[in-house]
Amino acid sequence: MDFIYAHFYGLANLSVFGYVIVTLLWLHTTMMCVTLYFHRDQAHRSVDLHASVRHFCRFWLWINTGASTREWVAVHRKHHAHCEQEGDPHSPRLFGLKKVLLEGAELYRAEARNPETVEKYAKGCPDDWLENYVYHNSHGSYFGIWLMGIADLVLFGVPGIIMLALQLSNMPLLAAGVINGLCHAKGYRNFETDDDSTNLWPIGLFIAGEELHNNHHAFPTSARFSMRRHEVDMGWLHLKALEFFGLAKIRRVATAPALEQSARSAADLDELRAIIVNRMHVLRAYMQKVTLPVLRREAESLGDNANTLLRAARKALIRHPHMLDERSRKRLAELAARHPRFETVLQFRNELRNLWEGAHTSNERLLADFRDWCARAEQSRIQGLQDFVAYLKSFRALRESALGLR
Asked: Is 261 inside a domain boundary?
């Protein structure tokens, strides 16, 4: 007992405030290692971290999570490849939100143990001695967590037990639960991705920008997740600091479409290519410039409550049509039946999506279909549609290195 009393606060012997600060910095470092190394550097290759930063992240994540690079990356890439469909390792649509929130870590571990998943989706990840004989689960990766536990007790004493509990619950709660669960069920959406991804801003201080999940699914190879002025990507801020000190190289960042000052008389194949690459921005612009304004005018002309209709419609319009539930489909059908011009712009929206989602025999056929869409939109006598055609015709052709990303 005398020994425990003498070493109650560990070698660090911090104040209560000191333990709180160290714990928060520890948890924040773990999330930063996940988002910068596992996610942006390894899974999507949007940045190149310096070798020293990579090795630090690998070691830090080993002692805090027990996860190896190859397993984490493989599970995440499979999630993108099969998002909300059969094969997605942790979709709330498939497993239910409660299961992903409470058992997300178990779902991850089950998929990480699948050798076929690792073999197929972990291409390009570290395959050195450390990865195969130290960090890999089958060779005792949880030894790192034991090391962290011992370090906590030696440095921080009995309060280190509480710190250890928080450190070990960090990833299951925030990553496996909040990001994989809530960020596919609750929150707002900026882009009409073909999944359920959402943004949960403003909790970025705790989840390092990963809460901007809809933005990430719209532009998965972008190193920056924030897309609107009020959104803060803490991972991006840290990445810029690393870049300043020469410890990171940013490879790709999503940017807004480049537009000419005046519209062309007709789009050519290069401009159409720019439109397709920037299709997330195009669909968002269509909703803001065409669909919602037309619905507002239709509602006001009939004496309906326009604001209420717009809020309800926006939640449905920001989702891919095949991701809507029966209630949302019925609501849109009722609005279309009551507001003919709204029905027209919905039809044009679906046709525009089909241009890049459908199968075309040649680029020439694709361009001909697009020009036909523009011609019919200009003849629709709907001002919003006519203005939107001018917007599309002002797209600047992409440089070979751009592809919608810097």
From this structure: no
Q: How many domains does the chain have?
A: 2
State the pLDDT at residue 20.
92
Dump strand ranges (E) for 211-309.
Answer: 248-250
**What does the alpha-carbon distance between residue 73 and residue 117 come to, in Å, rounded to a whole number?**
10
Please write the tens of the pLDDT for every residue from 177-224: 889 999 998 899 999 999 999 999 777 667 899 999 999 999 999 999
Element (H, E) at 48: strand 47-49
Express each pLDDT in 137-178 by its tens digit: 654 557 888 889 898 888 898 888 999 898 888 888 888 888
pTM over 0.85: yes
Q: What single-letter amino acid sits at 336?
A: A
Cβ-Cβ contacts under 8 Å for 274 (sequence gap 6 or more): 257, 258, 395, 396, 397, 398, 404
Regarding whether 149 and 6 lie in a shared domain, the answer is yes
Say whether both 283 and 379 belong to one domain.
yes
Pick from 193, 201, 195: which is nearest to 254 by CA?
193
CA distances from 40 to 33, 91, 183 (A): 10, 21, 18
Q: In the structure encoding, which two tokens stand for residue 352, read together?
A: 């525009």
Q: What is the DSSP string of 342-401?
A: HHHHHHHHHHHHHHHHS--S-HHHHHHHHHHHHHHHHTS--HHHHHHHHHHHTBPPPPTT
The amino acid at residue 138 is: S
206/290 same-domain check: no
Query: Which contiguous run of DSSP H or E holds residue 222?
Result: none
- Work out the number of other CB atoms within 10 angstroms of the CB of residue 286: 23
- Amino acid in position 262: S
- Residue 155 structural domain: 2-250
Element (H, E) at 73: helix 69-81
Query: Do 121 and 36 share a structural domain?
Result: yes
User: Nearest Cα to 14, choosing from 25, 2, 1?
Assistant: 25
Radius of gyration, CA atoms only, the chain: 25
